[in-house]
Amino acid sequence: MSLTLRVNGKSHTVDVEPSTPLLYILRNDLGLQGPRFGCGLGQCGACTVIVNSVAIRSCITPASGVKGEITTLEGIAKEGKLHPLQQAWIDEQVPQCGFCQNGQIMTAKALLDKNPKPTDAQIRQAMNGTLCRCMTYYRIQAAIKRAVRVVAADHAAAEKEVVA
Amino acid sequence: MRTFTFTKIPKHVEDVLQSEGLHQSDVLRKMGGTTSRRDLFKNAGLLVVSFAAAGTTRITPELNAQGPTASAGPYPDVDFHQLDSWIVIRADNSATFYVGKTDCGQGTGTSFRQIMSDELDVAYDKTTCIMGSTDNTVDQGGSGGSTAMERDSLPMKRVAAEARRVLLEMGSARLGVPVDQLAVSEGVITVKGDPSKSVTYGQLIGGKRFNVTLTGNNVNATTGKATVKTVQELKNVGLSPQRYDIPPKVDGSLKWAVDVRLPGMVHARNVKPPVVGAKLVSIDDASVRGMPGFVKVVSKGNYVAVVCEREEQAINAARMLKVNWEKPATSPFPSSEKLFGYMRDVTPTSSANPIVVGNPDTAFPTAVKVIQADYEIPFQGHTAISPAHATADPSNGLMTIYSNDMKSYGMRLGVAAFLGMPKEKVRVVWMEGPQGYGRTAAEDAGCEAAYLANEIGRPVRVQWMRNEETAWDTKAPAFAVSMKGGLDAAGNLIALDYNARAADYNHVGYNEADTVLIAQLMGIRRAKPAAGSAATPGEVYAIPHRRMTAHVVSLPLVWETPLRTGNLRDPNGPQSTFASESFIDELAAAAKADPLEFRMKLLTASSDDDRGFRRARSVAVLKAAAETYGWDRRPSPKTRGTGETLTGRGIAYSFRGQTIVAEIAEVEVNRRTGHVWVKRLVCAHDCGLVINPQSLRHTIECAMLHSISRTLYEEVQFDTEKVTSVDWNSHPTLTHADAPEKIEVVLVNGDPNPKRSDLPPYGAGEAACKPMLAAIANAIFDATGVRLRRIPFRAPRVLTALKAAQLA
Question: Complex ipTM above 0.95?
Answer without folding.
Answer: yes
